[in-house]
Amino acid sequence: MKALVQSSAPPERRVPGDLAMWCFILAELAVFGVFFLVYAVFRWREPALFAAGQRSLDLTLPTLNTLFLLAGSAAMLAAVSRFAEGRQPAGRRALALTMLCGGGFLALKLYELVGKFARGITLSTNDFWMFYLSLTVFHFLHVVLGMVIVAAVWRLARDGRYTPDAMDGVETAAAYWHMVDLVWLVLFALVYVAR
Amino acid sequence: MSNATVASLPASATAAASQVRYRSQAVAKPYFIAAIGLFIGQIVFGLIIGLQYVVGDFLFPVVTFSTARMVHTNLLIVWLLFGFMGAGYYLIPEETERELHSPKLAIITFWVFLVAGALTILGYLGLPYNVLAHLTGNDLLPTMGRGYLEQPLITKVGIVLVALSFLYNLSMTLLAGRKTSISIVMLLGLWGLAIFFLFSFVNPNNLVLDKYFWWWVVHLWVEGVWELIMGAMLAFVLVKVTGVDREIIEKWLYLIIAMTLITGIVGTGHHYFWIGTPAYWQVWGSIFSALEPIPFFMMTMFAFNMVKRRRREHPNQAATLWALGTGVMSFLGAGVWGFLGTLSVVNYYTHGTQVTASHGHMAFYGAYAMVVLTMISYTMPLLRGREANSPQAQKVEKLAFWVMTLSIVAITLCLTAAGATQVLLQRLSDTPLSFMETQDRIMPIYWARWVCGISFFCGLVLYVISFFVTGKREE
Fold it and tell me: Residue B385 is part of which domain span?
């Protein structure tokens, strides 16, 4: 009976990671949210210009980049699971894999942006390219920050501090990384795919 | 600290030593006293220009509007700088748990800064501006004639030297002592303040570029690095008066700083709408500055949350009131009133009207004047040898808080009404009035604003009186 009561008890409700990070994530989402909203207004006002701009975008690299970020998120999920199981070396390897995926994203994105600059595209070319560059570069900077956070956790994890009872650091990094991933999915859909 | 440096401290310092943890913290006292003195001067000149709005030839030609306005704004900056420096000299030794690197240097810096500041103000008042410019070497490197940066070249160089001496003193103290988030953020803000001031020496012939870099001083001060200083000062006082765990307070501090920098740096763009910069600033400036209220809102949440979770009842309730007031008023003044004119589509109509002045008044008071007064309120009793002032003195101080704060709210509302009238009559109307015709219609509002200014001054007088109320102290 006791076991039955225990098993039917609702799981403990808690916010994974540091609450402060969730406040920060909300604020970050607000920044991107407003940016997407303004993008939508401009796109609605200049549909032909935005359609032409989007047609000139090649989807191969951004699709690969999407896969990189999704793989990075999967690796991050694996890292959280491994640390929760007390398998620290495996957890660190998963974090390294996350960074590798992030590095792949940054390299491809950099290649894509350099290509645009080489074509003479700047923030002043037209409204579409202004949004394209603003949003992608702003997101690029967030991936860099995400990698810094993951790298910090990877480094700190060397001394075995992240145990199943002390997961805050890993969960906090995971929350931020997933936010960066989520924003990319919306950005990819709005800027590259939705035509 | 050597005997020589102790001997250089003010006479009252040793008497107060029982309440300050490090004797060299006493150097903060003259800075705070000077700050309050200059604050009074700023308000007196505010009243003069407020009256000149309605009685155009008041004091003409002895003190013209442009001169009095310059003195009003320059005194504001200088007294806040004195406040920040006093706060730095008090806060850093306490946080680093060691005496100041050189109290003697801090006292020398104080006198140099005070004398240079006084001479500059006398120069403004006693000489035609072009003569002052000629006499002080503006021909060699023209830097004068721009709002807030009107100081003669030699004063600007003096400010840099004073800042360097101050930062050297604090940085050496920090390097040798305990490093806390509060002290690091405070120093980061103060270094930022000094570095961005260097752009006051950049004065390109191209007017667009001139304005572009001018904002690197003005905007990146008040909506950038000064917010770090403010956050650190507020966090310091909250740690002291609430007894809440330092870890929690520092976490909030980091969060506030991150949001300040994310929104504030690109938010500079709200000044680039109409000065000749590329069009993308319309979007960047609008989006990022629309989010600038977030860190200020966090500051409000921070102050109230910490006071709610307090683990002790500090006898200095006046300081707690100032801290909470800073949280609320900075959000209203810098956040809400800042947002009023920050979107480019709205700013197109409100630019250069009294709407901007309304934001300026409430933001400067709510964020920076109040945080300095918070720091003074917490530290001055300690510097004078007691944990807190007597209940009677605190009662007067709290009354001063309410009179000044409600007066600034009233001034802000008057200026907002004046600005809205300008927008309606001068810019939105099908039959727009001229600037001066519009001003005539606003006269009653300007009178009301001036009366509120007198009320503010009364609050300030009460504040000064509170320092002299003895009363019976609670043991």
Answer: 254-475
In chain A, the largest separation of any two C-alpha atoms, in whole Å, equals 73
Phi, psi angles (nearest 5°) of residue A152: -65, -45
The predicted pLDDT at position B91 comes to: 97
The answer to the question of residue B277 being in a domain is yes
pLDDT in tens, A79-105: 999 999 999 999 999 999 999 999 999
Q: How confident is the model over B422-448, as pLDDT tens digits?
A: 999 999 999 999 999 999 999 999 999
B153, B310, B322, B364 from B156: Cα distances, Å: 5, 43, 32, 22
A26 touches B: beta carbon within 8 Å: no
pTM for this model (two decimals) = 0.89
Q: Looking at the 3D structure of chain B, how many domains does it have? A: 1
**A contact test, residue of B284, B297, B306, B342 with most A CBs within 10 A:** B284
Distance from the A14 Cα atom to the nearest Cα atom in chain B, whole angstroms: 18
Residue B178: pLDDT above 50? Answer: yes
- Alpha-carbon distance A124 to nearest alpha carbon in chain B (angstroms): 7
User: What is the predicted ipTM?
Assistant: 0.82
Q: Hey, are the CB atoms on B298 and A18 less than 8 Å from each other?
A: no
Hey, are the CB atoms on A20 and B263 less than 8 Å from each other? Answer: no
Q: Which CATH class is domain A17-46+59-193?
A: mainly alpha
Share above pLDDT 90 across residues of chain B, in percent, rounded to a whole number: 87
